């Protein structure tokens, strides 16, 4: 959730740790320092990548101690409020809206494996009272900030000011809903947010009453199409020097936005299970928690881990790589999340 160079779970076992465990620990360090996405684990000093180290990261592990820290989870109906910052063409917005609507679709259920089934793993997390994260996720009122009211370079703190502007706008402010509202700041591909590309592709936190007037869970996700597709649009794009294959074509034909979908899923899953950073996370340091999606970065299917995405569906007609179906015949590629009972990363496209 917050960037850090410090890894959690750093203690190696006393005697000859297995390469798998070393990889596992290095993956955890990477996931805490990036907290949305940089899945390839081993970059050599000369810039090449190591392949084939592990395909077992999805496997159950006694080394992951995901714990509940007594804080709230989002048990009330969830409403997602997109804030479109910068220039957002309607086709791009439609992809993202369709993904959010796919979490609890109104009409006929899309074919399996579905986005709704993916969210069911998130809904397994409960609070002190035994209430689950809500399965009801709706697309709520939206706000356009087309002219970039706070500029094209945002810091973590100015992100909160953007949200304040959206909930306090004179015309059509976003509703303030501390119970189930999630505020999703989506920046266009010409906007830079602190640490974008280097360490993060998105993050979530909660707003401070001193800035926004309320404590509201929010997330930011950036469009990396221009700035760093090889970093934040993996696996549709690969970094220079990677040499390995790409996963396939973006399923909705938009590299930057299709890649944002998985990061949005990541952040929604974590906001629902850890909205105030005091509920579900692994690691001992609450400042650098490893949350339910951090644990599964870069894993989209069975066998995923290391630099391997896991088994995906690749459409023979258009080459699109995806793992979930959504409303309106849309397809999405979304990372898995940690399953609290199975104790490993899981998604509805898992092969037995
Ligand atoms: C890069 O480094 C790795 C590990 O140190 C080594 O195995 C590999 O051969 C090197 N590649 C090149 C092109 O030097
Ligand atoms: C919450 O969502 C469920 C399912 O969509 C719906 O039946 C219910 O009326 C909603 N409750 C509130 C308080 O909006
Ligand atoms: C609520 O969470 C519990 C514990 O993970 C799980 O057994 C149960 O199936 C969940 N209920 C729903 C409706 O998801």
From TrEMBL:
Keywords: Apoplast, Secreted, Signal. It is found in: Secreted, Extracellular space, Apoplast. Residues 1-36 form the signal peptide. InterPro entries: EXORDIUM-like (IPR006766). GO terms for cellular component: apoplast. Belongs to the EXORDIUM family. This is Protein EXORDIUM-like 3. It comes from Dioscorea cayennensis subsp. rotundata.
């Amino acid at each position: 959730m917050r960037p850090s160079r410090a890894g959690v779970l750093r203690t190696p076992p006393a005697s000859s740790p297995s390469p798998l465990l070393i990889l596992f620990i290095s993956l955890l360090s990477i996931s805490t320092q990036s907290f949305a996405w940089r899945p390839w684990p081993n970059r050599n000093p000369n810039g090449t990548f190591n392949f084939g180290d592990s395909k077992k990261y999805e496997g159950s592990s006694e080394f992951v101690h995901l714990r509940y820290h007594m804080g709230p989870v989002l048990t009330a109906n969830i409403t997602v409020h997109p804030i479109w910052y910068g220039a957002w063409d309607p086709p791009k917005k439609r992809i993202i809206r369709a993904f959010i609507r796919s979490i609890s679709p109104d009409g006929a259920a899309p074919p399996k494996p579905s986005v709704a089934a993916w969210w069911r793993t998130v809904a397994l997390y409960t609070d002190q009272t035994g209430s689950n994260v809500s399965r009801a996720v709706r697309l709520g009122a939206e706000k356009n900030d087309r002219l970039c009211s706070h500029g094209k370079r945002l810091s973590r703190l100015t992100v909160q000011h953007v949200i304040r502007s959206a909930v306090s706008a004179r015309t059509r402010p976003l509703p303030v809903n501390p119970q189930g509202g999630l505020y999703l700041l989506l920046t266009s591909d010409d906007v830079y947010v602190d640490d974008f590309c280097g360490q993060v592709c998105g993050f979530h936190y909660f707003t401070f009453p001193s800035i926004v007037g309320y404590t509201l869970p929010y997330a930011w996700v950036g469009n990396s199409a221009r700035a760093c597709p090889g970093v934040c649009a993996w696996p549709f794009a690969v970094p220079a020097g990677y040499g390995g294959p790409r996963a396939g074509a973006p399923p909705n034909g938009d590299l930057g936005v299709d890649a944002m979908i998985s990061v949005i899923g990541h952040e929604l899953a974590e906001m629902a299970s850890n909205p105030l950073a005091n509920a579900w996370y692994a690691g001992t340091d609450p400042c650098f928690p490893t949350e339910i999606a951090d644990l599964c970065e870069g894993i989209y299917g069975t066998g995923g881990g290391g630099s391997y995405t896991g088994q995906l569906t690749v459409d023979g007609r258009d080459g699109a790589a995806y793992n979930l179906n959504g409303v309106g015949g849309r397809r999405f590629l979304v990372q898995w999340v940690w399953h609290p009972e199975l104790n490993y990363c899981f998604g509805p496209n898992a092969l037995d």
